[in-house]
Request: fold
Amino acid sequence: MCGIAGFFEQSRSVHDAPVGQVLLTMLQGLARRGPDSAGVALFGPGADHQVVLRIKLGGEGDCSARLAALRNFLDSDFTSRYQLASHGNAGRLVVSEVANVAALAAAVEALDKEIEVVSMGARLEIVKQVGSPANLDRAYGVSQMKGTHGIGHTRLSTESKVDLSHSQPFGSHQIGDLAIVHNGHITNYHQLRRRHEQCKVRFYTENDSEVVAIYLADQINKGLTLKEALHAMLRDLDGSFSCLVATASQFGFVKDPFALKPLLWTETASFVALANEEVAIRSALPGDYEVREAQAGEVRVWER
Amino acid sequence: MGEVNCEGRTSREVNAEIKRQVRQGESPIVVRNPGARHNLGVAILQPVTVQIHGSVGYYCAGLIDGATVEVAGSAGWGLAESMLTGLVRVRGSAGNGAAAAIRGGTVVIQGDAAARLGISMKGGTVIVAGNCGYMAGFMAQKGTLVVCGDAGEAFGDSLYETVCYVGGKIASLGTDAVIEKPSSGESESLDALLAQRLDPDARRKLPRGADFKKIVAGRKLWNFDKREWKTWQEAL
Reply:
């Protein structure tokens, strides 16, 4: 059992909707579905010619040497074009005039094997950690984060270890601005993983949900639209899945053909909200609207 | 009339308060601000009316015997699961497994139902004014299942003696489900049932009894016969 939640601002003129606060409230409503870890992937307003990386500087313990190595690298390659903030083992890096964000992420990770890029893109920021949604807010100020849309997750680990890397949401190292959250279990995970590893794709965790992000990035790289990729997922992934997916301009869900996991959705003129319990949606978004269960094998994508 | 405000209360506290008011003889009992909490109104064993003003979460009105539970909103998974007798009415839509394993009573969903509607029902009546999702009526044993709109895939798979009616299109029939034309007596009873359970405005927009398809078991799976091995291979 995991909690998943998503919020999407429908008005194209709004770029600073209280996405962080809404997601946090929804995750608090879902926290008993997954007490192990909490995380959100949020699409902020962004700025022209800038990319943002959320970086894990290491596990427990002192990260200062790795932080210094990162600063060294940035000073030599990006001189005055970057801002780096860090708190504990988490770093946030903003760099302007970057031609290839995936190459930048690879260069940052090449500095030390403990360093992991958690998210990358022009607007996407993923923050996640072990513990409750309230602790996530204390560490990262999620409730203050504004943007256009985002997805969140509370985890009950069933098959792999509990740490920041194994928490959700998962981003992609192949393409920027892609994030997923998944409730369920991908039963052909090992087969899919082998297939992607043969194509030199690196897996960072043993969490089966990671393959969803890698699979979707691969499909999108092959030229599929997000909607087509989600339909392809119904064909290629086995097991149970209610998945929420977000890119810089799109937001959607897919539910497995057996409808083994709950997923509720609602759409009003001003927002779309998704969660696997209606109580989460109602607690974050008061008002008069109807909430519906997604059907088996249903795919929906919204665009802004 | 009793009243329970859910705000600031857990499901357990709300249910304890409902039961306290039932013991005092209150009826109807109005439940306000349910906020889609889970397990609301479970195991009420007296013939009282509970009106829930808003949406409910999982397992609402499960295991009830004799109560009437009205939900002015939508319902999550497992609505009225395993109820014995009574009436559960949802103004909006219901999630997966609505009316699963009911033994009697009536469940009315005025919106749509998601997957696994009425699976393994052992009696009672289920009416959905809208559409239903995948695998409705799976292994249903007795009672009546009525879907006024369209039905999803694998409808009526491995049925026993439950009689199903669908007013709209059926995406696909499940194993051993067969379509029959209802007799004039059956379509008249269906009309009477829908007139009794749905409000006249909603009823007018729906097909007439005679236009419903009747779906029952083909009885191919009731007894194993190795000469029908192919049927079994497909079913299992």
